[in-house]
Amino acid sequence: MTSFIIKDHVGRLVPTTWAADPECAFCRILRQEIPASVVYENEKVIAILDILPLRAGHTLVIPKAHISRLSDLPPELASALGEAVSKVADDLPKVSIALDNTGLNVVCNQEYAQAVPHVHYHVIPAPILGSSRGVSPIVDVVGGETPLTHREMHQKEFESREELDEDDAEALLTKIRARL
């Protein structure tokens, strides 16, 4: 049965959206042209630490095939991505020494706010409101300050990002990989 299926795919044209994009940052990481802190990898996906993380542990889960739009993702890759996202999402909060937080945000953009046009999921430890490690909303309307809009919150959170330090990345990787 398997050989019959394989023979059907011999010579089949690969969709153009699956081809690597020579300028795509993720494709360059997959070709090992630029470094990345790899959290998890299998034959279909790779998970890496974001180089401009919102918070410690911010991980990107990326298919190895270059596909720009989530809506173009074939079912087998969607399944592989879902499994990897679940694995990272399950294990990331368990790294409590590194993250001290069990809440997560899982985000996938299509075109809107997609800095790299290659499907990827962000698995981000949620902010700890009121702490210096996360952006907290201004809630003191009585004191004269109005609450931030969602856009203002997003902008403040983006501005609070710092480039990932290589030593910090190594320490995080050790803790996260031990749980995967």
Topology, please?
Blueprint: H1 2-9, H2 25-30, E1 38-41, E2 45-49, E3 59-63, H3 75-91, H4 96-99, E4 104-107, E5 121-125, H5 150-159, H6 166-179
Describe this structure in words.
Helices cover 33% and strands 13% of the residues. The protein has helices at 2-9, 25-30, 75-91, 96-99, 150-159, 166-179; strands at 38-41, 45-49, 59-63, 104-107, 121-125. Strands 1-2-3-5-4 form a 5-stranded antiparallel β-sheet. Strand 1 and strand 2 (45-49) form a beta hairpin.
Q: Please summarize the sheet with the most strands.
A: 5 strands, antiparallel
H/E series, N to C?
A: HHEEEHHEEHH
* Gross geometry: globular
β content, as a range?
5-15%
Which class best fits the helix and strand makeup?
Answer: alpha+beta
Radius of gyration computed on alpha carbons: 19 Å
Number of helices: 6
- Low-confidence sequence ranges: 1-7, 133-143
The percent range for helix content is 25-40%
Instruction: Please list the strands of the largest sheet in the order they lie side by side.
Output: 1-2-3-5-4
Mean pLDDT: 78
Number of strands: 5
N- to C-terminal distance:
34 Å
